[in-house]
Write a structure and sequence with these properties.
By secondary structure, the chain is α/β, with parallel strands linked by helices. It is built from 15 helices and 12 strands.
Length: about 425
């Protein structure tokens, strides 16, 4: 791409993604209800399980409320940031979500962070949770599903994927055991994400835990392990290859080459988080789709990946990226360049459900991650209205807002130490 063409594409990119056209419809629908109520309270409630889960509730002066989930573990200080924002939010019109999000905390001196033009953590995670609660609240006020407010639903259900993995990828019997269990899962997951083990430096003398490379033995094991998984599970289930920003460029290319034969949905986060031209080089070299984005925030964080084709699939976490509207704008940016969306999600049933409602409004959407669907208390935080996950999908609700109705008995039984019901 020449300098002139690149400049033109950037200008076109900014022009094409400056506004979200669906907002015009939202404002028309909301016009009659604007200025009729004000935010009167913002509450939090922290749950404790394998992680912590920070629920947020926005309440109006007439008693209407919306619920969402902000980032919990490892989001230290998110609850405190939400409460620090509360005085700023009181008195605001809850239907002016774009204005509230864009100016969140402006003029406040008691916030240990920056506004939405700053930190991706702490403050940004608090803002994201509040923003999503306001979309639930707006849907309830206007009597329509949040997906409708976001422009309408492209699908009736959203695919979710789990982390089911074999005990030993190099043992074919272990892989067959895994496949049998995965196919019998009551939630019906057909898409699974997992990584691969490293060799022991005691037996693989080339293994250096201090570098970002894989040894020859590791690359051979990697290929064999994933081929064993594919052989065991067949082609009716999908596999995603998980990394944690661990490798250099050449090793990332080698990993993509090693797993190509199993046709993974994607190779996730092989390179360090921030954009560099190495991401673009990886995409150009790999026949396996490259996926990233869970630690990026706002359009600015995704911009270079999109413009420079630094990934094939964008994978934001709505609790990091800015909530519903901001992440929909990111999806609009991606649409211009033909890049689909998926979503990272280590949240509770509440955030899994909410993310899927958002995903219904995205045209090119692949799947939503979840750590739920295992049949325990994490699947019972909401009062059921039919199956939670069925055949590996979550349906798009027809109820107003996000359709979330908490199960007080389950929630109260799993409150973190010192927490109380909507404190």
């Amino acid at each position: 791409m020449t300098r002139d063409t690149n400049t033109l594409s950037r200008r076109s990119f900014l022009a094409l993604t400056a506004t979200a056209p669906f907002l015009a419809g939202y404002h028309r629908l909301a016009a009659a209800e604007k200025k009729r109520r004000r935010i009167s309270d913002v509450q939090t409630m922290v749950l404790k399980g394998d992680r912590t889960y920070v629920l947020v509730k926005a309440v109006t002066d007439d008693g209407a409320y919306g619920i969402a989930e902000a980032y919990g573990t490892p989001g230290v200080g998110v609850k405190e940031q939400i409460h620090a924002l509360k005085p700023w939010l009181i008195g605001k019109d809850p239907l002016e979500i774009d204005l509230i999000y864009t100016t969140m905390g402006e003029g406040s001196s008691n916030l240990s962070g920056t506004r939405t033009d700053g930190s991706a953590h702490g403050f940004m995670r608090a803002v994201s949770g509040i923003e999503m609660a306001l979309w639930d609240l707006s849907g309830k006020i206007l009597g329509v599903p949040t997906t409708t407010l976001l422009g309408g639903k492209f699908r009736d259900k959203v695919r979710v994927y789990d982390h089911a993995a074999p005990r030993n990828m190099l043992d074919k019997s272990s892989c067959r055991e895994w496949a049998q269990k995965a196919k019998a899962d009551p939630s019906g997951f057909t898409c699974h994400k997992f990584g691969f083990p490293h060799t022991d430096p005691k037996t693989d003398l080339a293994r250096d835990a201090g570098n970002r490379l894989l040894t020859t033995k590791e690359l051979i094991n990697l290929r064999q392990g994933y081929e064993n998984c594919r052989e065991a599970i067949g082609w009716d289930h999908d596999i995603m290859v998980h990394n944690h920003w661990e490798y250099d460029l050449r090793t990332s290319i080698q990993i993509a080459d090693a797993v190509e034969s199993i046709r993974p949905v994607w190779l996730e986060d092989p390179l360090p988080v921030d954009y560099s031209d190495s991401w673009r080089r990886l995409c150009a070299s790999s026949k396996v789709p490259i996926c990233t984005g869970e630690n990026l925030a706002r359009r600015e964080g995704f911009k270079d990946f999109i413009i420079n084709q630094g990934c094939d699939i964008l994978h934001p976490d709505l609790r990091n990226s800015g909530g519903f509207l901001e992440t929909k704008r990111i999806a609009d940016m991606a649409h211009v360049f033909g890049l689909p969306m998926a979503t990272h999600n280590t949240g509770s049933q509440i955030h899994t459900w909410a993310t899927c409602q958002w995903a219904g409004s995205i045209r090119d959407f692949i799947a939503c991650e979840t750590v739920t669907g295992k049949g325990g208390w994490m699947d019972q935080l909401m009062i059921p209205d039919g199956p939670y996950i069925k055949d590996g999908f979550i349906r798009i609700t027809e109820k107003p807002g996000l359709g979330i109705e908490l199960n007080p008995d389950v929630v109260k039984a799993h409150l973190a130490e010192g927490e109380r019901w909507w404190g």
